[in-house]
Every structure is written in structure tokens, then in C-alpha cells.
Amino acid sequence: MKVLRSRGPEIFDIELEKDLLAKNKGLAKENRKKFDHSNILAIDIMGSIGSGKTSLIKAILKRLGMGVKVAVIAGDLTTTIDAERIEAEGARVIQVNTGKECHLDANLIRQAIGRMKLDGVKVLFIENVGNLICPGEFPLGAHKRLVVTSVTEGPYTIVKHPYIFREADVIVLNKIDLAKPMKVSIPQLEKDARKINPRIPFIRTNAVKGIGITKVVDALGLKT
Ligand code: MG
How far apart are the CA of 146 and the centre of ligand 1, in A? Predict the structure, then answer.
């Protein structure tokens, strides 16, 4: 089969992209300093649309029961649906709408934390924009990056997105109750993940029912 492999951005984009990624990295470092200075553990939640990022955050918040000691930055192109869902759990929430950008970046996070009251906050969740490509390249300054994928995305999601799963510190496989009807093998998905990221915690969840959430909380180093 003929395959054309891109070896990176088009020539006229190379300098621009390098510059952009370097600037983002610098701002991410500054964000991290701010988090550390305020004793806040920041967690970047990545995953496709519909994988269960918001449901997972809600389930974790419920389990932690920390109320306003948890803050959430909800990233989305245009809606406030996620922020409203999360607000119901009692956390402090800010919605960041990226317009047409497919990921959050460190500059947006810097602006968001500048607008939030973070006194007394111990944990900050950042729900990234829903896709498995762009967010991986833009660190935000979070201490941990978690990727959620669900069995409803089919059998090839992990093998097709090696970069983001390599970037992850924790992988969550959600909607495990639907594996059979979807004809998706959970052990195979775990194998795919281990090939990319051998020692990573791979946690099976049903976020809506609260299954596997204790393991996620432990893997993130959060205390209930
Ligand atoms: Mg969401």
C-alpha cells in the first residue's frame, strides 16, 4: 500500500510551531510554580468528546467530598454544559471557551487561574477540550495528566493515538459495562496501552455508576 508520511509541519509552519510550543512550555512552567506555591495539585483531564471526562470529574468530586477545596477549569469550544454539570457537585468552576481551538494552552490556564479565587483550594482539575490529538502537545503546568477513553470509541483508539497515551500519567478506560455490546476487548485495549506506556496505571471505570473511582483517586495521589 502507498503511504505518504508527514515528517512534521509544512516548511513555512516549522518556525512558528517551534516558537509556539516553546512559549507554551515556558508559561506552563510558570503555572506549575504558582500551583506549587499555593500547594495546589493540578490535574489535566484529556480525552475524546463523550469519553466521560466530565462524568469522571463529577464522580471524583463526589468521592472526595471536598466542596470548595476543589476547583475546576472546564475547557470547551463554545458551551457551558460541563461547567454547569460540575458546579452541581459544589466545586468552584470556571468555563474557558476556546472558540475554534482544539486544546487548552498554558496561557489560557494562566488567565483562568487569575480570575478564580483559589484560596483554600487543594486540587484543581482542568478538563481539556475533547479530542485525543492537540491537547497532548500543550502541557498546561499540571502535575499529572490523565487520559480517559471509553469502550464506545471502538477497538483502535489507543493504537491510533500513541502520542497522547505516552504523555499520560494515568489512563482510564470508561464505560466498561458497554464492552460486550460494543464487541470491544478490554484486555486488548490494556495491552495496547501497555505497549505504549508500560508501567502506567490503567483503570477500568464506569464513572456514572462510581465503579473504579477509588482506584483513580489513589492513582492521582488524592486522599479521600
Ligand atoms: Mg466534558
Answer: 14
Can you tell me which residue has the cell 498554558?
A: 106
In what side-by-side order are the strands of the sheet with 41-47?
92-97, 70-76, 123-127, 41-47, 144-150, 170-174, 202-204
- Taking the centre of ligand 1 as the mean of its atom positions, its distance from the CA of residue 54, in whole angstroms, is 4
Give residues with Cβ within 8 angstroms of 15, minimum separation 6.
none
- What are 21's three cell numbers? 510550543
Residue 137 predicted with pLDDT over 90? yes
Q: How far is the CA of 49 from the centre of ligand 1 (A)?
A: 7
Total count of residues recorded for the chain: 224
Domain region containing 95: 12-219
Q: Using CA atoms, how far apart are residues 55 and 4, in angstroms rounded to an integer? A: 38
Q: Express each pLDDT in 193-204 by its tens digit.
A: 999 999 999 999
Query: What is the number of domains present in the chain?
Result: 1
| CATH at residue 77 | 3.40.50.300
